[in-house]
Amino acid sequence: AALLAGVSHAGFPDEDDSRLSLQLTRKLSNNDQKGKHNDNDNTIDLIVKYKNEEGHTFADSFDKNGKGRVISQKRHTETITAKINDMDKLKKDPNIEYVELDVERHAFPNMRGYEVVAGKGGRRLSEETPYGIDMVNPDSPTPRLQQGSTSIKVCVVDTGYDNDHIDLPELDPNTGGFSPYEGQSWSNDGHGHGTHCAGTIGAMGGNDKGVTSVNPDPTKFSFYIGKGLTDSGSGSSSGVMEAVQKCVDAQANIISMSLGGGAPTNAELEQYREHYEDDGVLIIA
Hints:
Elements: H1 22-29, E1 43-50, H2 53-60, E2 69-72, E3 77-83, H3 86-92, E4 96-101, E5 104-107, H4 131-136, E6 152-157, E7 177-178, H5 193-202, E8 221-226, E9 234-236, H6 237-249, E10 254-256, E11 259-260, H7 266-279, E12 282-284
Parallel strand pairs: 6-8, 6-10, 7-8, 10-12
Antiparallel strand pairs: 1-3, 1-4, 2-3, 5-9, 5-11
Helix pairs in contact: 6-7
């Protein structure tokens, strides 16, 4: 095999309504006693899929800054920040295919030996063989399966990547990743979860530092990093989608996403299915 993929248990937490973002819940809970709200103070983030340029222009007109943020030009998807009541107006327009809430996504913390304190970083790589290595590629009763000769590009969509880590390959700071979040670089992981996941996939082996991984030889694979989540450990579905699109644009063969946050949106399902079926990209989430 050219690359061995590490697998960890993942899932979504129970939520009263997995399609309703925490942001919208908080805003609606601040309504007055008659259940009304002030549109001037209440905005929500929406994912819009438009059918044509007329729909694109129409969607942009509702954004608080006059222009949405592109998720995928190919798929006609963008995210906008609009007033709560604008959601129904957008849905009724014939040039709009659908409108969905831009729901929250977060790092999945329930990994053995890994505890996350949001914004303070989690466990960094330590001198040990991670338990997942023996789970996915045991050395008994037969020797471990080795990396092949064909180089594979793996994209980790998470909280970022510690580009100065002594046990991880150093990536080009200009081309090695992408972040949709202003002021937060993909090459800085203020949370630790993304670096942990990248270490399981590709920590350098045989260097007497840190840990080994399922792909210990960095000459036989490469990383691309999509900062789909912020340094706090959470982000938006649109942020994750943007990061995934950049991974595909960077010719990634495999995308790893260890995150949760409720049921996927239609936009997420469509995009990820098309990446698998049309682009030949394996997404492990």
